[in-house]
Amino acid sequence: MFSPSKLRINTKLFKKLLDLRSCYELSKIRYSDDIPEILKFYSDTPASCQLDKYPKLTEDDYTRFITKKAMKREPADTRQITKLAYKLGKQVISLAEGMPNEEMFPFARLQLSTKTGKDLVLEGSELAAALQYMPSQGYPALLTELRSLQRALHRAPDTHDVLVTNGAQHAIYQCADMLVEPGDPVLLSEYTYTGALSVLRPYDPELILIAEDESGIVPETLESVLESRLMRGLKMPKLLYVVPTGSNPTGLVIPEHRKKQIYELACRYDFLILEDDPYMFFNYTGIRTPSFLSMDVCGRVLRLDSASKAFSAGLRLGWLTAPAPLVARAELHSQAELLHPSTLSQAIILRVLSDRAALAEHAARARDFYLARRDALGEALQVLRGLADWTPPQAGMFYWLRVHGVDDVYDMVFHRALSRGLLLVPGQAFMFDSAQRCSHLRLTFSKLPLHLMAEAALQLRDVILEEHKVAEPRRRAAAPPRSR
C-alpha cells in the first residue's frame, strides 16, 4: 500500500503531515441525534453481534483486492508537495508549487442566487482558492465537511476517509481500475446501471448476475451462487456493485434486513461492496433504510455519493467514502488522471452541504417533487393495463415496464416509437450482453412536463399495439402446424 516513506524527501516530516490516518480517523467520534429524519441513513440499533466473528480488514488485507495496475501507481512528488503546502500554509516560504498567481485571474466576484433567496457569494481569498489547484484528495474545507457529513448521515466508521471525485461515474471507473483485473468475476444485479456496465466492459469480466425480486437482490440466491462457486473451486468475486436505493433501472429499494444479510455474505465470502447511491434522498417508501456504509464494521464498503441528482448534474462532483487505505489508492489514480476535480464546483457544494437545515429542506422538497411526478406518470400509464405490467418505483426516477407479447422491444423503440417522436430506453441498455432479447422498457418521469404525461402514455400504448400487429405474422409463421 502507499506509504509516505516512498517519498525521497524528509520522510519523517511527510509521515507526520501526510499520514493516511487523518485527524478525522484518530479522534473519538461523537454523534449528534439532532438530525432531520430525511438525513438519517443508519439504524438506531447497533450492528448484529453475528459480525463479531469476522475480522476487521487491515491495511495489509486490502492488498489482495488491489489490481496489479493500481499497485504500480506511486504518489507524484509535486502533488504531495501541493498537499503539504495547504497543510503548512504561511508557516513556510515556498519555491515549490507550480501554481499560477491568483492576482492574474480575471475574476473578482462570483454570485449565485438560489431559489431559497440566499445568495452564494465567493470573493477575495475564498474565490482565489476556488479558482486554484488543490490537493488531489479534494478541497481541504470540503473534505472536512464531507467527513462530518458522513459521520452524521451514516455513522461512518472511524477507519474510513473521503475522496472527492468528478461525479460518481468517475468514482465507479476509479474503483474498477483499482479492484477489477481482466477476466475477474464481478457480482451485479440482473439489470444494472448502464454506466457501470460501460466501465466494466473493457475488463472482459465474468459477470455473476444475481436475480432480484420486489426487494432487490435476493440474498439466498447470492449465497447459493457463492457457495456453489466455492465448492467447485472457481475463482471467487472480490466485488459486488449495487445501487441500493432506486436501482437504475428497476426503481427498487433494498430493505435493511436484506442489506444485513448481504453484508454478512461479504464478510463470509470475502468480497467488497461498491455502494452507488445517487437517489438516496428520493426514497418514496416512508421507511428509513440504513446504508451499507452504516453497517461497515469490518471495512468492506466503498460508498459513492453524488451531487448530480439533488443539486446539479453539471457541477460534476461526487465523493467516495471508503477504508482509508483504499481512499489513498484511489487518490493516486486522481493524481495521474485529472489532478483533482473542479475546485470551483467543490467550493459551491461546500456551501450547499454546510447548512444542514437547508440541506434537509431541499432534500425533502426534491423528494416530494419527484414523488408527485412518479404518481402522475403512474396514473397516465393506466391506459397500458393489459399491454404491460409494472410496479410503482420505490425510489429514484424510473418506471420499469415489461411489455406483453413483445419478446424484444429493441426494434419497437428505435423504429415504431422513434418514428412517432417518442423516445424510450430499451431494457438491453441495462444488460451486459446488449444483443440479448429483452421485453422491458425504462421510462423516466424526472423531466417530462406533467401536461405531456398522458399524451406520452397514449403514444406508448399505440406503439405497443402497432408492434403487436407487426409481430403477429411472425408469430403465426413460427407456430408449429396444426395436426389434422
Automatic annotation (TrEMBL):
<dbReference type="InterPro" id="IPR015424">
    <property type="entry name" value="PyrdxlP-dep_Trfase"/>
</dbReference>
<dbReference type="GO" id="GO:1901605">
    <property type="term" value="P:alpha-amino acid metabolic process"/>
</dbReference>
<feature type="domain" description="Aminotransferase class I/classII large">
    <location>
        <begin position="129"/>
        <end position="456"/>
    </location>
</feature>
<keyword id="KW-0808">Transferase</keyword>
<dbReference type="InterPro" id="IPR004839">
    <property type="entry name" value="Aminotransferase_I/II_large"/>
</dbReference>
<dbReference type="GO" id="GO:0016212">
    <property type="term" value="F:kynurenine-oxoglutarate transaminase activity"/>
</dbReference>
<dbReference type="InterPro" id="IPR015421">
    <property type="entry name" value="PyrdxlP-dep_Trfase_major"/>
</dbReference>
<keyword id="KW-0032">Aminotransferase</keyword>
<dbReference type="InterPro" id="IPR050859">
    <property type="entry name" value="Class-I_PLP-dep_aminotransf"/>
</dbReference>
<dbReference type="GO" id="GO:0030170">
    <property type="term" value="F:pyridoxal phosphate binding"/>
</dbReference>
<dbReference type="Pfam" id="PF00155">
    <property type="entry name" value="Aminotran_1_2"/>
</dbReference>
<protein>
    <submittedName>
        <fullName>Kynurenine/alpha-aminoadipate aminotransferase, mitochondrial</fullName>
    </submittedName>
</protein>
<keyword id="KW-0663">Pyridoxal phosphate</keyword>
